[in-house]
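Predicting holo structure, zinc ion bound.
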Amino acid sequence: MLKIAIQKSGRLSEKSLEQIAESGISVANGDRKLVAQASNFPIELLYLRDDDIPQCVYDGVADVGVVGENVLLETGCALDIVERLGFGKCRMSLAIPKSEKYGGLTWFNGRKIATSYPKILQDFLDRHGVQADIHHISGSVEISTGVGIADAIFDIVSSGSTLISNGLKEVDTVVHSEAVMVGRKVALGQEKAAILEKLLFRLHAVQKGRKNKYVMLNAPAASVEKITAVIPGMKSPTVIPLAQEGWCSIHSVLPEGQIWEIIDQLHSLGAQGILVMPIEKMIL
Ligand code: PRT
Ligand code: ZN
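Done. Tokens:
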């Protein structure tokens, strides 16, 4: 049985459960007690506060955990990043009142910075030889300058709208973060390592599926060669003759990020009836 710690409730909990569900694993978690076992896969979920997850994994209470990289860095636990999960993306930045003139990091010398992440901030300031006074608060960091507690803040930024609505401007990004699966690979043992490998195989299939689209189109037989050069596919594209003579149907898999660019090219090569469909799982 592999024990996985995930956030009980918060920004990472739904996505963590979603990835587990998309891997075909059923966990009855209606009331989110502390522990829940999957019915069709040897894992057990532990629902915890995100701040407690790194230490719990380090102590062996859980075998792996899903947590924001920012929390892992702040706790300073010596854990391996087993997998980057691609959700919960954000950055940790320094921000100052928008009326201030900013000429670089020396601005922070002798200033007071409010944050919930004193370790990450101190490491950053030390690396850059800046001497500032760190004021550790546990929440509502963004209001610190407005109420006169600090001259600047260091906090998580996603869209940036919280900074703007508090009259702040982002002046330096210290670190980028996303949800990661953490663990201690050496401490796992053979049985748990095998379960983790099986779980990661499924997660990869789901992630790859998300990053790609299944594309079907009709093309004049004369253009097939040019079109297949544009859409190479997993091995090579499927080309099927249509009932109407001189026409083919071509099926392929394309990376999500390039879809529109490729569709423009396909269109100009005479492709018609282009269908783009989501892929649920993809195994190479
Ligand atoms: O209760 P528990 O301790 O488990 O949860 P928590 O309240 O400490 O954490 P939670 O659920 O708020 O966030 C969990 C993780 O989500 C964080 O550790 C980050 O890794 C990640 N994450 C991603 C974020 C954001 N985006 C985010 N935007 N965490 C917080 N924010 C907050 C930020 O603190 C700021 O107040 O959103 C505001 C900024 O958002 P924008 O969009 O206005 O810039
Ligand atoms: Zn927390």
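The pocket of zinc ion (ligand 2) is lined by residues 49-51 (CB under 6 Å).
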